[in-house]
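Protocol step 4 of 6: structure prediction from sequence.
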Amino acid sequence: MTTEDDGPETPDADTGGVLAQITQPLWFPELAPGGDGEGFFEKTSRHSMMFVRRVRPILFVSFDNLSNVNDRSAERGPWAYKFAQELAVSHLGVMAHGKLWYRDADLIARMEKLRDEGFFAQFDRVVLSGSSMGAFAALAFSVLAPGAHVLAFNPQSTLDPDLVPWEERYWIGRRQDWSLPFSDAKDTLATAARVSVFYDPYFEPDRKHFERIAGPNVTGYKCWYSNHKSAVFLRKIEALKPIMTAGVLDTLTEAEFYKLYRRRRELRWYAGALEGYFLDQERLSMAKRTRLNFRRLKRERLAEEQVNDG
């Protein structure tokens, strides 16, 4: 799972006089007429919505981020589709077809209708998740399912210029209609059970958004030096999947998170950022120590992997 760097893929063209293999959406085997799943798929020009029911009485609700909006590939699926499938949890995936930040009256009305029909209430547990734009939606729409949990990676609380005049990113998003309902996550989290926010406290814009929504049911997980790509960072240290799994199953603790996050020391991304910090402070001995520690940890990890493979 990424924040900004995914791109569309296209099937290979047929050159042998025989029809090329048809590429199917990820969800098609479950929701096709001959499939073994139950659910629905809906599409408008702005958003698509997929739901598939699975064994566990848990609903995972995901929202696309900006990297997904230009994906026109036939196999496109909702954010974290494979993750939810492997975990056997029901999945409501909202796919964005533009940089609209879910400021769409029709989508909002559809989400409210799901609430009014008791869709969310039928599950023992509801977890909303996303990254950046998707994390904003997860926070904002959580109010539709009182008692819901949220896993938000680098979220924005709103892009309403009147509320966050210091937010200068996402100019298309800032131009959307922020008078629509569910436009400020600061106003939607009171009914949530637990809100887990993963962010870099050294990255000022994201820290400010976190501070706007901080409260008794909000836990901040500090992803130092990950900038606005905490989900990518966590994936690179093989921590994203176990953290999301624990979050969905309600077993995530701060102690477990920071234990998993210790592997950041083996990531060149982190070591380079930390070394740069010390160099900026003219703490040359600490910069050198950071560089040497990174090399040592990489050697130890490589040796461990060789032993396990042998």
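Step 5 (inspection) to follow. The chain has two domains: 28-264, 267-310.
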